[in-house]
Amino acid sequence: MRAVDDLSYYLNKGESIGLVGESACGKSVSALSIMRLIPYPPGIIVGGEIIFEGQDLLKVSEEEIRHIRGNKIAMIFQEPTTSLNPVLSISRQLSESLELHRGLSKKEAAAEAVKLLDMVGIPDVEKRVKDYPHQFSGGMQQRIMIAMALSCTPALVIADEPTTSVDVTVQAQLLELIDGLRSEFGTAVILITHNLGIVARYVDRVNVMYAGRLVETAPTEELYGVPRHPYTLGLLRSVPRLDLPRSHKLSIIDGLPPNLARLPQGCAFAPRCYLAVDRCRREKPALEKVAENHYTACFRNSEVKKEARVD
Amino acid sequence: MPKDDILIDVKNLYMYFPVTAGVLQRKVADVKAVDGVSFYIKRGEALGLVGESGCGKTTTGRSILQLYNVERGEVWFEGANICKVKGEKLRRLRRHMQLIFQDPYASLDPRMTAGQIIGEPLIVHKLAKGEVYRKQVMELLSMVELEPRMADRFPHEFSGGQRQRIGIARALAVRPSFIVCDEAVSALDVSIQAQVITLLMRLREELNLTYLFIAHDLSVVRHISDRVAVMYLGKIMEITHSDELYDNPLHPYTQALLSAVPIPDPVVDRQRTRILLAGDVPSPVNPPSGCHFHPRCRMAIDICKEEEPELRNIGSEHWVACHRV
Questions:
Q1: Does A201 touch chain B (CB under 8 A)?
Q2: Where are the beta strands (DSSP E) in chain B?
Q3: Of residues B222, B246, B276, nearest to A172 (C-beta)
Q4: What's the CATH fold of domain A1-203?
């Protein structure tokens, strides 16, 4: 089964990109590959390169990647409850990586932990550093995760659905926090999400994935303004929007996402695509440039552009 | 408004759950899940109920269905206070009120086929058997856009969206007039969510159903509902028509909630005012005095700490509970 198939994208220093797609489109797997966290067996990276600061992460030794993980590239997961160690106080969890990666002494690390927790907005830090993860709410736990991710001022933070398990007002707090830290430290961010709204607000560029492949990539405004892939257009039109009158009809993408083990011969989206022609069912479209920094994998992208204009 | 236009009328509903401690399991406190809630739902209407986790929206829905023993408050359905109904009579009443659950994975028995799951309510309520039963199951399947041949498959053979359709068909089997949809589309992917939302809206029209649509996603709730009620810590803060809610939100909590929902269009989204709430929702065991929202409210003044604001009608069915309107 090909979870991620021939995916290429780049990310500049300090830039934020969104990786968007529905369940099982390969967005998380592609991010875990960057960290070399794919369990083997069964998972295997068959080919490709992941160049980070000029170095191919797939070629470096286990020792080196361990040094990069958490230090230069950090990850924020969806479920803070399962990612935090329940038997260590939050101060200890934070100082562990500070001692390991930054070589601080126990005392220095503890002081630094307090500073970090304060920065991400944990109230009464001095009193609470000795508390355990379960004593914090979901939103606070995610703040602790963010503090851990930033503890070594990484060059890249990968946030995998960081706000799926929290309420919308807390989601707003967390995303503002990540965005604020990005501008403060110049950290690049990969935001993995299925929520098109989050992406619109917080990233510079968007990559849309479908069935393990990149189907469209463009600067945020351009992607929302002139989508050139029918899947992107379908996603945009199938979410209810607060700012549109209720009479506005949702347009539906028919059918189900394909089984990755039995992908069709041509474009994976063709069976659900109302613009599909014979060629789409025969041939796999490659990414093609349609505008500056805007690429799409669709033979019918000019038709999509016309469709997108009809509003 | 004539009285028989109202299908569900909830009056001063309270639902507390005891917190016990010690060897003797003595009651030490109450979780005030629903703390004095009143609203009505008109026949054929969809009322949305939104709020963050722990605000009491699910408990409200379940109390209306009498899944809890309601001790304080009244729930009127078809002109009768159903909190007093017990036993066989309650069982017969249940036929008219159904529930669609959030998790399509957990709410279907894995050992029953789709057909058996959908048909079970028909047998329980002795509504059909034999050839009629089979025919009705097939009809229900096609009503939720599943193919009749799928009747013999087991839940694990279906996708999440299809499973949710089975749950909807099961609820429809007994021809209810009122359905509580509790986060019915929240677990689904965007493209599948749109399919199920559209299905629910079509069914409501065709079968003249009345919905209480509970969800945390404000855009989804507003899209489906005629009116929306916003809950916070066991209380209703604001109820109004769905379009009015976005155009003219009056409660500071509603305003913050709306501004936290991103709009999938960067050009529109940039022009909106953002209100960032500080902190988390306080515990419903020990809610703040006065207005429950006052510690997080940017408009709060002294009276908000002392006196609880009443839910007032400020005209054309727009109700708000706030001293500062």
A1: yes
A2: 6-21, 26-42, 46-50, 72-77, 80-81, 97-100, 178-182, 210-214, 227-232, 235-241, 312-313, 319-320
A3: B276
A4: Rossmann fold (3.40.50)
